[in-house]
Amino acid sequence: MNKQSSLIPVPSPLPPNLNILAVDDDEDNRFLLIHFLELLGCQPLSAQSGKETVKLATQTRLDLILLDLVLPGIDGFETLQKLKQDARSRHIPVVAVTGLVLAEDRQQIREVGFDGYLSKPYLLKDLEQVLHHHLPQVSVSASYSV
Fold first, then answer.
1. Given phi > 0 = left and psi -120 to 50 = alpha, else beta, which region is 63?
2. Which residues sit opposite 43 in a β-bridge?
3. pTM given for the model
4. CATH number of the domain to which 99 belongs
5. Residue 80 belongs to a domain
């Protein structure tokens, strides 16, 4: 019986104990985001509304927030505004997670102060790139196992 080796990409290591807040009102989307963050070695927290996001961000040490734009109550844009107005949370990078992919949507996301965006649907490697980009102490180095 011959065994064939195949290369399987392994996520690049991230610093331990990164607290990443995954915000999405859709349970399946939130579950997927949390699962991906766990695969990358992060300590994910989750929220399903803008109000909950602001509360967690002002009471918890967070390294990054992944914020859906379409949320019940206050949307992602208003949530970002509240986060940036509070001294306890204004330093936290906030990445929009969105299905909005038109050029004018991306422009609006940048103009209102998001640090970046992740377009839905996304792959694990897309999320990994976002984390590496917005957490500069991390160096990207592809690693593979056989």
1. alpha
2. 19
3. 0.84
4. 3.40.50.2300
5. yes
